[in-house]
Amino acid sequence: MLNELIKKAKKGDNEAFQELILYYKNDLYKIAKTRLSTPEDIDDAMQETIISAYESIHKLIDISKFKSWLIAILINKCKFIYYQKQKDKVVSYEDIEGEKFMSENEKYSYNIKFDTLLEPLSSDEKTIVVLYYYEGYKVEEISKILKLNSNTIKTKLFRARKKIMDDLKEGCIDG
């Protein structure tokens, strides 16, 4: 079914493209949330990803790679937004202690416990953990998506697991 939608979307079928985006919306949200900290930035990254994917889907050669292609676009958009924000960043107490996406979590049915496990991790580690455990990608696939050496992915995954386990042992993570 997804392959048919992708084929139709490549041929310019707007409804097929919309269905694909709706199908992957929660996955995109979860990945964007590992890279960006505000709901507005996450929404911007998702919107920019959708626009870029729509404009360039006709260039997609292997339709079986649609999801990883879409995620790669998203990660690049997240990086751009993150670096733009860092240029003139002013941090206030409200930014640090403000609302932590509860309404967004409910809106997207996001698993709070999984999110809590990710808190001690760096942005790269969060993305790798989500892609590996939640999305089911293999190390080699993550390596291609993130354009990092597979040994780097393995190392970051190992460190992420260790941080999570250490926090669990210390009782720092509440479910």
Helix tally? 10
Q: Could you spell the SSE succession in H and E letters?
A: HHHHHHHHHH
CATH architecture classification name of the largest domain: Orthogonal Bundle
User: How many strands?
Assistant: 0
Helix content range? over 70%
**Class from helix and strand fractions:** mainly alpha
General form: globular
Structure description:
The structure is a single chain. With 175 residues, the protein is mostly helical. The chain folds into two domains: 1-88 and 105-110, RNA polymerase sigma factor, region 2, helix turn helix motif (Rna Polymerase Sigma Factor, Chain: A), CATH 1.10.1740; 111-175, Winged helix-like DNA-binding domain superfamily/Winged helix DNA-binding domain (Arc Repressor Mutant, subunit A). Helix content is 74%, strand content 0%. It has ten helices and no strands. The protein has helices at residues 2-10, 14-35, 39-56, 66-87, 93-97, 102-107, 112-118, 123-134, 139-146, 150-170. Helix 1 (2-10) crosses helix 2 (14-35), helix 2 (14-35) crosses helix 8 (123-134) and helix 3 (39-56) crosses helix 4 (66-87). It is globular. The protein starts with a helix and ends in a 5-residue tail after the last helix. The relative contact order is 0.11.
